[in-house]
Amino acid sequence: MTSEQKIAALRADVDVLAAATPETVLGSLPNWDSLAILLVVSHFEHGHQQTITGAQVRACRTVADLLALLPHKP
Amino acid sequence: MQSSLTHVRLAGLAVTVGSVVRDFQAEGLAAGQEPAQLARLAKAVGLRERRVAASDVTALDLCADAAARLLDEAAVDASSLDAIVFVTQTADHPQPNNASLLHARLGMSKAAAAYDLSLGCSGWVYGLHQAAMLCGAGAARVLVCAGDTLSRVVDPADPATAPLFGDAGSAILVEKTGEASAMHFVFGTDGKGASAIIVPAGGERQPQGSGTDSCLRMDGAAVYEFALREVPPAVAGVLKLAGWSPEAVDHLVLHQANRFVVSSVARKCGFPEAKVPMDLAEQFGNQSSASIPAAMAHACADSLQGGRRRVVACGFGVGFSWGAVAFEAGPMVIAPTLVFPR
Asked: Does residue B195 share a domain with residue B131?
């Protein structure tokens, strides 16, 4: 999966990230809340079969930081 | 722990729900929440309406109604019950327990055992296990009631919990049988997660009083992570004990926290949505320990009344605590789900 595909999938699953770019600062989004964090955790679980925690999501500053939680596969 | 018990069957069930309808959008707007945010929550989590108990109705009343209707429908005399197990965390009194009070209401024999289990959303599976063990130890017929009125325990100003919970009471009849049918259980506890769902005050550690918090507080993200982490292995565990694949199961009945959680956990368990009731909380709210029998009565009644079915159920929640069970059931008595008072 390319970086573009990864961000497109994230946009599709997490409503508040629908228009996000890698540079988008998560805390600047008006609805970056506990529901958005749950949707990100769910996206990783079902879209990438990767279990992450809400704490890991809260520690991310930008969308690029979220994508960096995914293991790099060449 | 794992447990397999034989020569026991689930003979019937009934569920009674609160009579007051609460609309999610209307409640949110009245509380000053933004319409767009309410629509977002409704769509993502699956929140529409819920049913709560009238102010003078308790979990005991709801369970008593369900129990009386079940015994009537199954043509079973209450005096023939060997025991009653009552699962609740919203009992009428600190003492005596709800089971003793219901024992009197139903007119059960003095020879019957009656006790409560203090468990929440995992509790129905624990109650079923207690009944199955009692049947293995000499009882012929056990009534298990599970119900709560959690809508009263939440903080109305807390948007993380206030719109979630509905009130319901359930009753099931568990009987010893000559058939070699088995119930397979897997239980687990992670007490380190206890603070993620807690009513801080109101017990002996922190008596209720001014400045104390006696409302239910919940870390939704922690609970979601817990459910995704612990439920799929528990479901896989009972499938292994039963020797079944997901394809061989007719119904996977998960605790109906909300559609988002049920759908997510079911996917991770490897079950198709068609086998998993998941819209109950949208109509009734999260019914705590009554949600599994409520989902069976709501979504699986025709199937379970019609013939022998393979059922897997899993409850999970406060504690953290979880319990899964795999069993064959049916044809069984299922009384219609009704409101109380009618």
From this structure: no
